[in-house]
Amino acid sequence: MKKSHRIGILAAALHLLFFSLAHAQLSALPDGGNYKASVTERIGITDVTINYSRPGVKGREGKIWGQLVPVGYADIGTGAAKSVPWRAGANENTTIEFTTDVMVEGQPLPAGKYGFFVLYDPFGSTLIFSRNSTSWGSFTYDQKEDVLRVKVQPVPMDKEVERLKYEFMDQKENAATIALEWEKLSIPCKVEVDYVKTQLESFRRELRSDKGFTWEPWVQAAQFCAQRNVDLDEGLAWAGQIADNAATRNFASLSAKARILTLQGKTAKADSIMKEALPLGTMADIHLYGRQLLGEKKPKEALEAFKFNYDKHPNEMMTNVGLARGYSANGEYKKALEYMKKAQAAVTDPINKANIEKMIPVLEQGKDIN
């Protein structure tokens, strides 16, 4: 290799090195004092994560909405896009990610990570979910990348929020309202999930993993089906994985199987299984089973379960309370009061003592304690 050629290569390498060093930056606060933030909340078993930067009002009261955040599209004078929505924060894209499919304001949105933009209008703003989640702000926004647009109504607030934030409100197992709050305005949107569907899908996946090698997850899945009265055939199969195996046959699996059979109208078979299950149950197992029967409006069956528990564990606080509940549910308040007073004599912990003391006057008035 000629000397002049080697010198050329070295010069090019040094140029690249100096160029890289000139553009390398250490970690520091972002420009403009806009704080980075991330919030994750769970709706059902769906994780919702929002990554954003938090600009401050910084004395600009009354100049945020309609000025700093323009009404409708704006030409920000930078980048290829000339007509863009607000980036719903500062600096990089605001992003929102869902681990399962969701409904946003009643519209379907597949699981995934999205760039999030707001087309602000005081009379009805548009929320935009874009498949492009890696750009810087709105500079290269492209409407063709929109996956979903929904309209929402901004809501004035009494309080002032100095730094923009996202809040999860009105949370239920299958829904929540996510609100962008800044200055004295909230822009809310409702996100819903099909909790039962996603939970069952999760059970199916997990039962095929290492979690399926122990009996408890199978019973948990079966009990969910029984409690929700959904996918009973599959729930019965899950319970059977344990209940039909002599090595793992226990009260939990047998009672779950019996409950599903009852829901399917196969009561004779269910009763037969519960006769086998009761001797295998602990005192707490049987007490909770009796409470379950009370919840299902089966007072006679509940009383029989409580009697079985009392005979197996006589003079225990729990079994006395069980009999009191059982007799009360069947309108036999004097007997119920007798056993509740026995429970009062046997109680030692303050919480149960307080509960018993509340129930005794109710029984003395001839009223049901359940």
Question: Could you describe the 3D structure shown?
Answer:
This protein is α+β, with helices and mostly antiparallel strands and 370 residues long. The chain has two domains: 163 residues, no CATH class; 169 residues, Serine Threonine Protein Phosphatase 5, Tetratricopeptide repeat, CATH 1.25.40.10. It is 41% helix and 22% strand. The protein contains eleven helices and ten strands. It has a six-stranded antiparallel beta sheet with strand order 1-2-3-6-7-8, with no helix packed on it. A hairpin with a 5-residue loop joins strand 6 and strand 7. It is elongated, with a radius of gyration of 31 Å.
* H/I helix tally: 11
**How many domains make up the coordinates?**
2
Please state roughly what percent of the residues sit in beta strands, choosing from under 5%, 5-15%, 15-25%, 25-35%, 35-45% or over 45%: 15-25%
- Give the mean pLDDT: 91
Oligomer: single chain
Produce the secondary structure layout.
Elements: H1 3-23, E1 35-43, E2 46-54, E3 94-98, E4 102-104, E5 107-109, E6 112-119, E7 125-130, E8 146-152, E9 155-169, E10 175-192, H2 195-207, H3 215-228, H4 232-243, H5 251-263, H6 267-277, H7 283-295, H8 299-312, H9 317-329, H10 333-346, H11 350-364
Antiparallel strand pairs: 1-2, 2-3, 3-6, 4-5, 4-10, 6-7, 7-8, 9-10
